[in-house]
Design a protein that fits this description.
Helices cover about 60% and strands about 10% of the residues. It is built from nine helices and five strands. The protein has helices at about 1-25, 50-65, 80-90, 95-110, 110-115, 120-130, 140-145, 150-165, 185-195; strands spanning about 30, 35-45, 70-75, 170-175, 180. It starts with a helix and ends with a helix.
Length: about 200
């Protein structure tokens, strides 16, 4: 009987650890998880080229492919500085996926307003102002910014991405595990998607 209980406990711990690990490493994703095409974007929220990619490609990609279940889009955290890390923390601060992606778009749109200067406290206040428009409270965001587990999760995501994909700049974009090296123009990006359908 003891052996059986021991076995059940070990099995439970293994399942819990597996589930925890999976949850911890999950990127922010939008679309049908069974979609034939996976677009992975490794980006830093203070990177102007990342903002450009998101603004020029994401809206049409969402309308034509993500919303139709043809593409799943993954935003992978790859912060290059403390401001980008803190923006990622706010992005992952208790929001459901659609809201997170709306907030992501707004963070990119207002990048040249909040991601300026060297005073991290001023930058944090600017990021929090954006978060207020998406149902987050100042108290909630402050808790998230002080959450070491969430910080570690984002930094570990960056470390794992660096190991696996050898990222040298942001954004680094993969379509079905093949790196996209084209320009940030929707029609060119669309051609790469169409080849895989």
């Amino acid at each position: 009987m003891k052996e059986k209980s021991k076995y059940i406990l070990v099995t439970f711990v293994f399942i819990a650890l597996f589930a925890f690990t999976k949850a911890e490493s999950k990127a922010l994703s939008l679309g049908d998880l069974d979609a034939k095409i996976v677009v992975k974007v490794f980006s830093s929220l203070t990177c102007p080229h990342c903002a450009s990619f998101h603004e020029k490609i994401f809206p049409d990609l969402k309308k034509e492919y993500i919303d139709k279940g043809l593409v799943v889009f993954e935003h992978h955290s790859f912060p290059l500085d403390l401001a980008a890390l803190n923006a990622e923390i706010i992005l992952k601060c208790n929001l459901e996926n659609n809201k997170s992606f709306q907030l992501l778009g707004e963070i990119y749109r207002k990048q040249n307003k909040w991601a300026v200067g060297s005073d991290i406290n001023v930058i944090n206040e600017s990021i929090k102002k954006i978060g207020l428009g998406f149902g987050l409270t100042k108290i909630n965001m402050e808790k998230c910014l002080n959450n070491e587990k969430l910080q570690d999760q984002i930094l570990n995501e960056r470390i794992e991405a660096q190991k696996k994909y050898k990222i040298q700049s942001t954004p680094t974009i993969y379509i079905n595990e093949k790196q996209y090296k084209g320009t940030h123009e929707y029609e060119l990006f669309k051609k790469e998607i169409q080849k895989l359908l």
